[in-house]
Specification:
The protein has 14 helices and 14 strands. By secondary structure, it is α/β, with parallel strands linked by helices. It has 2 domains: 187 residues, Rossmann fold (3-Layer(aba) Sandwich), CATH 3.40.50; 128 residues, Rossmann fold (3-Layer(aba) Sandwich), CATH 3.40.50. The strands form 3 sheets. A 7-stranded mixed β-sheet has the order 3-2-4-5-7-6-12, sandwiched between helices.
Length: 408
């Protein structure tokens, strides 16, 4: 069998046979490219070696900041919104503000429905199919195109639904890693200005394909921000800051809270939340619970229950995982001398272990008990509601863990 040559020769022959270029033009292009490569290699060889401290340059760009952050917290006045409506409202406001904002993903522009959870409902009708459109069922394509498209202009802000469910984000892992280090690798010359929305977590009877939490992996990637709100106002505020900021933000949305009444909150106009700033949801003196996402609500319910027993719990809603507000947790633990970390992901290798480790190093002299952790069991999440309840954290499990730390 005779060889027909490598793909390069096929392409070359096709160009010539179809009259697109001549042999002489190809030779000229190749010579020009060879010269470009050699000049670049010479510049690299002659460049001075980098200094060790330069490893911290251009890891993450400075985020957007308003002229002045809102004083204190929202006063609760106004019409309470569901978390899903707060996201939808904020997306529309940001699209009206910046005509160079775009969104695509799976089913984000499907007729009258916006995604499987209605987060983008009505957006294509208002902003048109050039700015709001469906991507294929190919998560790597969705992320890869957001990276390339964002290079066209610094004004562009891209929002993608990285996967309809966090469970399906894994095909995009290669693109995610590639995007995460572009700002650092290009020495600050380029950064993808992309907000990646992902519906995360369980409690919907979705089983192992619709209940995963992936922040444990995402938080290992330098070069990205990771946020995880638990209330409608924080969801709106963090989304606004994410879209207006340069760089990549992984915006994890607890799908169980989309329409859950306990996540409702009034959202002030132009409300924005800074990255890396936790929020104290309940003040106490006996035990600190640091949580994010669904377990924030379990912690608040546990605090209310333990108050009946004369115990005072402080609940810190982290909201932002990268950057992490270690100071807020440390300040609280110095007051309470005890810490429980609650998250929905598995305790084994979950992000709670990182929180516990950093806090232990920071406030060890103030601790009167080992740091407790509560989360999911080291198993897949079952479809059956009985199995789901046995696997995922709950108010009862947070209560049990809190009592254990309190009685040490």
């Amino acid at each position: 069998m005779s060889s027909i040559g490598p793909p390069r020769s096929w392409f070359r022959r096709a160009l010539i046979e179809n009259g697109l270029v001549s042999e002489e033009e190809i030779v000229s292009i190749e010579a020009h490219n060879q010269q470009t490569y050699e000049e670049a290699a010479d510049r690299a060889k002659q460049a001075p070696d980098p200094t060790p401290d330069s490893i911290f340059d251009y890891v993450v760009p400075e985020p957007w900041k308003p002229e002045k952050w809102p004083e204190g917290l929202p006063d609760g006045s106004g019409e309470p919104l569901t978390l899903v409506l707060a996201l939808n409202q904020t997306l529309k406001e940001e699209f009206r503000r910046n005509p160079h904002t775009y969104i695509w993903g799976q089913d984000v522009a499907y007729r009258d429905k916006g995604g499987v959870f209605n987060v983008t409902k009505g957006m294509q009708q208002e902003f048109g199919p050039r700015r709001v459109f469906n991507g294929p069922i190919a998560e790597d394509f969705i992320l890869g195109t957001s990276d390339g498209f964002s290079r066209l202009s610094e004004e562009i802000r891209v929002v993608v639904e990285g996967a309809e469910f966090a469970d399906y984000f894994w095909p995009a892992a290669e693109q995610m890693v590639e995007m995460s280090h572009e700002y650092w690798r290009t020495n600050g010359k380029f950064v993808p200005n992309v907000t990646i929305r992902i519906a995360s977590g369980g409690y919907i009877g979705g089983g192992l394909y619709h209940s995963q939490n992936i922040e444990g992996w995402l938080t290992t990637l330098p070069g990205i921000r990771v946020v995880y709100p638990a209330f409608a106002d924080d969801a709106a505020g963090l989304l606004r800051t994410s879209i207006r900021s340069r760089g990549i933000t992984l915006f994890l949305e607890p799908k169980f809270l989309y329409n859950n009444p306990m996540a409702r909150a009034a959202v002030p106009a132009e409300f924005a939340v800074p990255f890396g700033k936790a929020r104290r949801r309940h003040e106490g003196t006996d035990l600190t619970i640091a949580a994010y996402g669904n377990p924030v609500h379990f912690a608040l319910e546990a605090a209310a229950e333990l108050e009946k027993e004369g115990r005072s719990l402080e609940v810190i809603d982290l909201r932002s995982l990268v950057p992490l507000d270690l100071d807020a947790v440390a300040e609280s633990v110095k007051k309470t001398s005890r810490l429980l970390v609650a998250h929905e992901d598995k305790v084994h290798a979950g992000f709670g272990g990182e929180i516990a480790s950093q806090i232990q190093e920071a406030v060890f002299p103030w601790l009167d008990a080992p740091i407790g952790r509560v989360g999911s069991t080291f198993t897949p999440v079952g479809f059956n509601r009985i199995l789901e309840r046995a696997i995922l954290p709950s108010t009862e499990k947070v209560l049990e863990a809190a009592r254990k730390v309190l009685t040490y």
